């Protein structure tokens, strides 16, 4: 029987968009390392595969851009809240009965007033003015006042939030935003079709025995693709397990088996004995005052 090369199945449909584009990108790199004529892959097929892969990457980048927009808004809200807190504490302490707080607020309010309605400015102007505010608040003459009004932590958090905001803003500036991109599901079908076509042609080239075909190269490609598929499946299963663990609460400890309810005691016996079977009730008698089994409820 003619020897063939076998390439495992990865189940591309189960992968999310990020996993899908990552797999195809790595698979393309494996195939692209070899001369097309020696592995039986026509150049136009590789170009089409690469083009669809690029469109998938653009779609994913657009999703990232939308996520960045949300994160930017959240981070801006955070720094606005910190600015408002700092300014309100300073202005509130203008009425403080404590001399040290009153003095600190009187000097710091001059700094706060320089920046007016800082929180309502555009993103780029606000970032620059926050940097200016931080420089002013960190001046040696104001450092003791910041400590007095217990604003050190808030100022530090404002600096961190502004730095993180700027980082997100710069990332969003380079993110792709196109209105003419197709749906991800449509492109995925095309990319998968390219990949499956490549696999078919690799196997056909190995069987052909054509002079230009290098079977050792084809064996190496099959080996590398199978390794990639193993890693992809392992990563997918790990991700699935982590999601399940995050969704399901930890199993509570198995509760101890409850003890048997206390058995009624026999006269002079322990609670572990079998309860006495009730006797056939006797004819009721009129109670008399000397019967110890009959008691009146206490008021």
Automatic annotation (TrEMBL):
Residues 240-299 are annotated as: Disordered. It comes from the Bacteria. This is Uncharacterized protein. Residues 245-265, 276-289 have a biased composition (Basic and acidic residues). It holds the Pfam family DUF6261.
